[in-house]
């Protein structure tokens, strides 16, 4: 059994838009929880206290989780906050005892193809964090391999999982117009109707670059929306890129 099996950093009931998922049961609320771990080491990690460091947890068995879901929203649960794929066995065990509960993953999609494909029949929706379109960004800043993520994005889409994508915009690292265009074209090559969320970064963990300005998020949305139909500003309010605008 995995050492972090059932060890949970937080359990909450969130608006589904907070995941963010704007086109999967909009307006609903969803039980949300996550483990104390991650399989990437992003220098800019926005939740490093619970993903990169050891923190307090409490055990939540799959049976207890089923009871929590039933008492709040008996139809859906999100594995989120850190990296849910680090809870691989736990999520599959929950899926086996709760076949009628829709499972949502908010994930970096960084996992070998075979176990990822094995999980897909149990997953209703995902928001995948696509951190950059450049291989060197993943290697140097996250300690990962972008090709694994790209392959898994396509696999999730082809399996019929509801898919939305998030990109964290970091000044000087992944925000050039050419990179944003390439990123959008990659997503459009799968389906230009995939909802795409652009969020602003703030200094965190090992990175002390200044925070992303709202106008920079808006400019990035302008670029990406030339190639994608559903583009949203993730954590700043920009009316034409807010929920309900598309």
Query: Looking across the biggest beta sheet, what order are the strands in?
Result: 3-1-2-4-5-6-7-8-9
From the alpha carbons, calculate the radius of gyration and give it in angstroms: 17 Å
Largest sheet: 9 strands, mixed
The coarse silhouette is: globular
- Number of E strands: 9
Structural class of the helix and strand makeup?
A: alpha/beta
Summed up, the domain count is 1
Helix percentage range: 25-40%
CATH class: Alpha Beta
Order of helices and strands: EEHEHEHEHEHHEHEHE
CATH topology: TIM Barrel
CATH architecture, please? Alpha-Beta Barrel
Q: Count the DSSP helices.
A: 8
Distance between the termini: 44 Å
Strand content: 15-25%
Provide structural commentary.
The chain is α/β, with parallel strands linked by helices. Helix content is 32%, strand content 20%. The protein has a single domain, classed as TIM Barrel, CATH 3.20.20. The longest helix is centred in the C-terminal third of the chain and has 14 residues. It starts with 6 loop residues before the first strand and ends in a 13-residue tail after the last strand. 40% of the residues are buried.
Q: Quick gist of this model?
A:
The protein has 246 residues and is of the alpha/beta class. The protein has helices at residues 48-51, 62-72, 88-97, 113-119, 135-142, 146-158, 177-190, 214-224, and strands spanning 7-15, 29-35, 58-59, 76-79, 102-107, 125-129, 162-169, 196-200, 231-233.
Observed structural traits:
246 residues; alpha/beta; TIM Barrel; nine-stranded mixed β-sheet; 8 helices; 9 strands
Topology:
Layout: E1 7-15, E2 29-35, H1 48-51, E3 58-59, H2 62-72, E4 76-79, H3 88-97, E5 102-107, H4 113-119, E6 125-129, H5 135-142, H6 146-158, E7 162-169, H7 177-190, E8 196-200, H8 214-224, E9 231-233
Parallel strand pairs: 2-4, 4-5, 5-6, 6-7, 7-8, 8-9
Antiparallel strand pairs: 1-2, 1-3
Helix pairs in contact: 2-3
């Amino acid at each position: 059994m995995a050492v972090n099996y059932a060890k949970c950093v937080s359990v909450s009931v969130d608006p589904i838009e907070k995941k963010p998922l704007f086109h999967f049961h909009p307006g609903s609320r969803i039980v949300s929880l996550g483990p104390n771990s991650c399989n990437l080491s992003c220098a800019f990690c926005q939740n490093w206290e619970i993903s990169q460091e050891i923190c307090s947890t409490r055990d939540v068995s799959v049976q207890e989780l089923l009871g929590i879901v039933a008492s709040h929203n008996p139809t859906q649960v999100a594995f989120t906050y850190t990296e849910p794929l680090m809870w691989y066995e736990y999520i599959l065990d929950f899926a086996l005892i709760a076949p009628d509960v829709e499972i949502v993953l908010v994930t970096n999609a960084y996992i070998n193809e075979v176990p990822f494909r094995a999980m897909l029949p149990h997953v209703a929706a995902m928001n995948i964090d696509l951190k950059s379109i450049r291989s060197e960004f993943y290697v140097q800043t996250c300690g990962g391999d972008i090709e694994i993520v790209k392959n898994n994005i396509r696999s999730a889409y082809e399996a019929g999982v509801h898919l939305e994508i998030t990109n964290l915009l970091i000044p000087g690292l992944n925000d050039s117009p050419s990179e944003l265009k390439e990123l959008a074209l990659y997503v459009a090559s799968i389906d230009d109707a995939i909802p795409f969320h652009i969020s602003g970064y703030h200094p965190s963990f090992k990175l002390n670059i200044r925070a992303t300005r709202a106008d920079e998020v808006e400019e990035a949305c302008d670029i990406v929306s030339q190639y994608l139909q559903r583009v949203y500003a993730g954590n700043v309010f920009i009316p034409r890129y807010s929920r309900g605008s598309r």
